[in-house]
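Build the 3D complex.
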Amino acid sequence: MSLFTLENIAVSYNKQHVLKDFNLEIEKGKLVSLLGPSGCGKTTTLRLIAGFLQSDEGKFLFQEKDYTKVPVNKRNFGFVFQNYALFPHLTIFDNVAFGLKLRKVGKAEIEKRVMNVLDIVNLQGFEKRYPKELSGGQKQRVAIARALVIEPDLLLFDEPLSNLDANLRESMRVEIRRIQQELGITTVYVSHDQEECFSISDQVAIMNKGVIEQLSDPATIYKYPSTKFVADFIGFKNFIDFDTVAEREGQIELKKGDYTFVIQKDGEMKNISGKTGAIRPDNLQIRAKSAADPLPPNGLFGQVNVTTFLGRSYQYVVETAIGNFVVNQEMAQPLSMGQEVILEFPKDEMVLVD
Amino acid sequence: MQEKSRGLALFTFLVFLFLLGPLLIISITSFEGGNILKFPPEEFSFRWYENIFKVKMFFITFKTSIFVSLAGNLLALLLGIPAAYALSRYDFRGKNVLNLIFVSPILIPGIVLGFALLRYVVVAYEFSIYTSLFIGHTIIMLPFVVRVISSSLSNFDFSIEEAAQSLGLSKVGAFFKVVLPNIKSGIIAAVMIAFLESFNNVDISVFMTGPGVSTLPIQMLTYVENYFDPTIAAISVLLMIITAIFMFMVERLMGLSYFTKR
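Done.
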């Protein structure tokens, strides 16, 4: 059952559309991420859900009630900000108790609930301190506690980890996921960090220019991006625009000029409406070519153009008859510049995108 | 090297002498025992400090000054806080012009402003002396209030306002509950600076005051025109002490650097 729905939302700043005909439906208890490059409208979407800004058109339905015009302070949503936004003049206890006091909760009850939530975020014993005495990670945990303690109907995160250093980011995202699952609270999470979104979300919505390009579970998106933008965003660096796409005996035959490629069609997952093939640099096979080697099926001849060292592997840019390809390969002996090579496209690694 | 720093020390000394010398001389002459202001004093006495409290007009005008400064301060705050907030919080067309208008009373010579107020406002609307003083002093203080509070809002993290809203406060409620408490020291500093500026003002007050009603600095001016005894030095020392205490408190609250930035 869906908890809330955004219907045909339009938002514009200075006459420029940020969101147009935007639709999103989120199920109860799920953690859904909005992921995309800056300027894609993900933060706008989140602020719209929170009620910080109003849409020009469209409807926001929450539990089948029209929330479009309900102001922020009447929504009972918890919001966690990128820069924590703790109240500097209040102690940690008073920061967390802020929402409860506004809800006229009794003193004993406030005490109990604040202590309980500080326990959940592992900040016991910090209640008398002030925000400036805390580290970034601790501040963000206070911010989460403050949003949680009001028992919100929805929890909203706006890039909560981007001000923290890498190690802390990883442990905090696990923490966020743990808390979210423990409390079963529906959550919308905005980030531009792909790994972060994929690791904690039930569903990821990849956004581009105010449109959701794909909304699916992380594994599906990772393996089967549906559009070229999504594929590019999640690391498919090689694209081939095919002339023809034909289905034959459970396989898909693709033609580009004189070259033919065959890929597997597995289940419902694969999109075959698209004409663009996409493959990750890690999944392309590369090997040196000797003079007598024939062209293997799903293969291309090429020449190494650029070699860069990535640490774990080498990255090559290979020039072929149908364009350049980026390939990553772990190798004891790196290939040299100008080396003749054979590229192979494994049947189950190339996908078709729109 | 040694030579250079000795030269610098001498230079610094001269600058300070130039700045503080007059104050020092006034302070010393205020203890003169004779009837005429002179330096160095011939005998030591507190009699002119006692005289301050014997001249009734000093006390009356002191009360007027305090009253006008406090009342004007209150109005300047009521106008200045929302103005400073809007100027810091929002981007809008004409923002720079508004900024300029709010600081213009500092830029325009007081004499010009005072005369303009008298000619086109006070006379035109037949305001009483108290009302005119009140309006004039509000105008004197407004730019300081706006500037000081703007600067305490310049690095303000307005997301705490949104946080408060998401926790259940209205926009106005969030302003009073989380914005105001966090710019408290800026407001106190603004009050003090504005108060000093208004309390010491001569150039605008001189146009606003009239028969029977005057502020302390104007009264002092009048006194000097008629008498040449050291009372004026004594009262100056008292005012300097009050100012020093104020500045010390401001410095303690937020550092004087507050007024040099932006």
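The mean pLDDT of chain A is 90.
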